TrEMBL record:
Keywords (A to Z) from UniProt: Iron, Metal-binding
UniProt organism field: Methylocystis heyeri
GO function terms (MF aspect): metal ion binding
Domain of life: Bacteria
Domain Gamma-butyrobetaine hydroxylase-like N-terminal: 12-96
UniProt lineage: Bacteria, Pseudomonadati, Pseudomonadota, Alphaproteobacteria, Hyphomicrobiales
Coiled coil location: none
Cited InterPro entries: GBBH-like_N, GBBH-like_N_sf
Protein name, as recorded: DUF971 domain-containing protein
Length: 126
């Protein structure tokens, strides 16, 4: 049942021992998002900051896993990662945006890492 004309999730499932999350929507769209991608694009203030200039590039998350998916009201989920990050609230709309833009956005993340001398295996953030 879409709400307000927006697709609504029909299934959210952890895959590969928490290394990925599959999100399916009632309009037939389905996205498999890696835990690494979800972690580095967390909507939390810790990662996003309070403005675009404050957004952090987080390295060293290639092997992060999702431990738990907790529903937040009727509009989102909170993901608990094994690196103890759990403050991001992923709305249905944000999960959809991440799914639709994952290839270009993940490449942008890789480019940010390279530009800042960070990598996917060493922890660090700028």
């Amino acid at each position: 049942m879409s709400v307000g004309g927006e697709p609504w999730p029909s299934e959210i499932r952890l895959l590969d021992h928490g290394k990925a999350l599959r999100v399916s929507f009632d309009d037939g769209a389905s996205f498999t998002l890696s835990a690494e991608y979800l972690r580095v694009r967390s909507p939390s203030a810790e990662v996003q900051g309070h403005s675009r200039d404050e957004r952090k590039t987080v390295g060293g998350k290639r092997n992060v896993a999702i431990l738990d998916v907790a529903q937040v009201g009727n509009y989102a989920v909170r993901l608990d990662f094994d690196d103890l990050h759990n403050t991001g609230i992923y709305t249905w709309r944000y999960l959809r945006q991440l799914g639709e833009g994952r290839e270009a956005d993940f490449q942008a993340y890789l480019d940010e890492l390279a530009a800042k001398g960070l990598d996917r295996d060493r922890p660090g953030e700028l």
